[in-house]
Amino acid sequence: MSSSFAAGPSLALAQPPLADPSAAEKGSLAAVGLGLLAVLVAAFDADAARARLSLYAALALLSGGTLAWSWLKFGRRPAGVQHHNLWRRGSTSRGAVAWVTAVVLTGFYVLLYWFSAPNDQGNFGLLNGLVHALDPFSQALRAHPADQWFLYGTFYTLAILLMGGRALWKYRHSRYQLIRTGSVMFFQLGFAFLLPGILQFFQQPEFYFTYFWPLKYDYLLPGTVDYLVQNGQALGVFMVFWGAVMALVATPVLTYFYGKRWYCSWVCGCGGLAETAGDPYRQLSDKSRAAWRWEVRLIYPILGLILLVTVAMWLNYVLHGAILGSVADGLYRFYGFVIGAVFSGVVGVGFYPLMGSRVWCRFGCPMAAYLGLLQKHFSRFRISTNGGQCISCGNCSNVCEMGIDVKQYAQRGEPIIRASCVGCGLCSTACPRGVLNLENGPREGRYQGSSFIHADSLRILS
């Protein structure tokens, strides 16, 4: 187990040069590069058959190259969280590679959200070739031609599965991490990708059973409720019931017993992408107090805004627009554009290589704010610490994607009870001394030091 140094860049001159990748690693990375090139070919090839062939070849190269590299990089090394040269690589320390990656991701999201709406001829702009290349797959799954959101869902799911494979190799020594990674892969593939498609195949409303209000903010709005009930009939009524119960009843109960990790680290697709595709960037989260202040200034007002939008839309619906008129609809459109598209989409993923993997979860997600309030004030969940065993290596703080300076708690032996903590358990997994443990003990003694350990506790061993 190697130590991590937050001030790594300042020590660069005192360290030996970076080791070159092995020939096998270069070969697997070359396959990934060829896969990305094939994606561009598919995007700009006017011949539909060739574009389709190029895209399928691209997906095969990307999949094979990523999984092979993951095994070569992590599978052949001793198990354990290793931070070798993390702050010396341009790809993981906001260097040139990171900036290029951020620009590409941001550009793709901008195209997806604002420049890929189909025209009367079914042309999706610059993404047209990629979208129509997936038509056969979309027809088989959904009985509908592909659109820009099906393309996005396919890429999104593939990213979680491939980078989830990487995480399985990297954290293979931790049973908790293996199960947690497998969980987000399962829910994304089964419940967020395949099931909505199967519903459409049987001419039922598209519905995502793993997304709840206030994250999926329109699921409890009158327009969506009417649509589901009218088009899905009995199934639609169940969908509305499911969404309401999960948001208003199950979420508080599950968070009381397990903290927000039951959702943010085990189920949510946003968290799933952050934990897999965003794992190389988790150390970039700002641990400063100024960043925490911005977190509080942004995330709770956003939760308040979606509450206001929901109430306004229902008042407008009940009163037939007699009082609010177009104000409610304007609030809805504003929230959908600024928060739903710009923040959660473009910034939330595009800024992974620059600000860490949980930008949206930390600063913008209303579901995270809702869960965080419950976790902070009503939950049994905490992370216990044993200050007497802490060697101040900093591994725990380095891997915290939510910007929590875990080391400061560990040194003092104080339990970590923070609204922002998603319970990913990486701080415990990365600790070489077993100082940190995730616990679900009773609320009595929740704020006591590490001497309080209940038999009901869930201990996460690194």
> Largest sheet, if any?
2 strands, antiparallel
The level of helicity is 55-70%
Oligomerization state: single chain
Compressed to H and E, one letter per element, the order equals HHHHHHHHHHHHHHHEHHHE
Question: Rg from C-alpha positions?
Answer: 23 Å
The best one-word shape is globular
According to DSSP, the number of beta strands is 2
pLDDT < 50 runs, ≥5 residues: 1-12, 450-462
CATH level-two architecture of the domain at 380-462: 2-Layer Sandwich
Total helices: the number is: 18
The chain-level mean pLDDT equals: 90
The proportion of residues in beta strands is under 5%
N- to C-terminal distance: 11 Å
User: What is the CATH topology assignment of the domain at 380-462?
Assistant: Alpha-Beta Plaits
The strand order across the widest sheet is 1-2
- What is the CATH level 1 assignment of the domain at 380-462? Alpha Beta
**Which class of secondary structure composition applies to the elements?**
mainly alpha
